[in-house]
Design a protein that fits this description.
The chain has 259 residues and is α/β, with parallel strands linked by helices. The protein is 20% helix and 27% strand. The strands form four sheets. Strands 4-12-11-7-5-13-14 form a seven-stranded mixed β-barrel. A two-stranded antiparallel sheet has the order 2-3. Strand 8 and strand 9 form a beta hairpin. The longest helix has 13 residues. The two termini are 18 Å apart.
């Protein structure tokens, strides 16, 4: 990229010709976290404690401590997050090259299907039908699955738990393999609490969006928002997690540049 291209981008941002769309959910005590069976360790939700607020503890400054799990709210899944990616190179947040955190977005609208069926699964046939209209997914692209699930502001509706577990849309195992190995995507992003469907524990392999994506050195973006503001193609997504040493994931502010 030349200086002139960067200057053009800066001018387009100033003029509004290029918009910045925030794909991030607010992060606070009410942010839902994934519910795991009691036999597994649970991730804590977000909490904060005031350090000072323009008072005797610090007369001119306000700040807090925060406590939360790495995979809380809008967050990034690094390859080391899943056992299949545990031995890969550059698999932790502090070792992932920054260039891999930015890429073009392919947004597949499954909102109508997810509204009709909470257990909707994206398939490779669905993806290829989308490609027939919008063009082939290029290597190094973020594949974002729009379901409008982020519009479920009630925690119970968002997690959609029943006696047999959560019921939320996601990816069919064969679709994850297709995206990882035939389209070589940078990673996948969803509006649900995690990148896998709610019933993915019963799939073969279990939790394929984690198992295959992280196992092949790719990434996951979960609890995204405002995907309805993105075009099917043409947006650039910046998904930059905290550079945590040996980190498996991190809350983040995900931004999209839309022309």
């Amino acid at each position: 990229m030349t200086v002139s291209l960067l200057t053009q981008l800066a001018d387009a941002l100033r003029s509004g010709a290029v918009k910045v769309v925030d794909l991030t959910q607010p992060l606070g005590p009410d942010t839902p976290v994934i519910d795991l069976p009691p036999i597994f360790a649970a991730s804590p939700g977000f909490s904060s404690e005031e350090i000072s607020h323009y008072d005797d503890r610090g007369p001119a400054w306000y700040w807090n401590t925060i406590r939360l799990g790495e995979h809380t709210g809008t967050h990034f899944d690094a390859p080391v997050h899943w056992v299949t990616g545990a031995q890969l190179p550059e698999n932790t947040l502090d070792t992932i090259p920054a260039s891999k955190l930015v890429g073009p977005a392919c947004v597949i609208d499954c909102s109508r299907e997810a509204a009709a069926n909470a257990d909707f699964l994206l398939t490779s046939d669905f993806v290829q039908a989308w490609e027939a209209e919008h063009g082939r997914i290029q290597p190094g692209s973020w594949l974002l699955m729009r379901t409008d699930w982020s519009k479920r502001t009630d925690r119970d509706a968002f997690l959609n738990m029943r006696e047999d577990g959560s019921h939320t849309p996601g990816f069919a195992p064969e679709c994850v393999r297709f995206l990882a190995f035939e389209r070589q995507v940078l990673g996948v992003g969803v509006e649900c609490v995690g990148t896998d469907a709610g019933q993915a524990a019963t799939f073969d392999p279990p939790f394929p969006a984690h198992n295959i994506m992280q196992g092949s050195g790719r990434f996951g973006l979960a609890s995204l928002a405002n995907l309805d503001q993105l075009p099917p193609t043409g947006a650039i997504v910046v998904a930059a997690p905290l550079k945590i040493v040996n980190g498996s994931g991190s809350p983040m502010r995900v931004l999209a540049l839309v022309g």
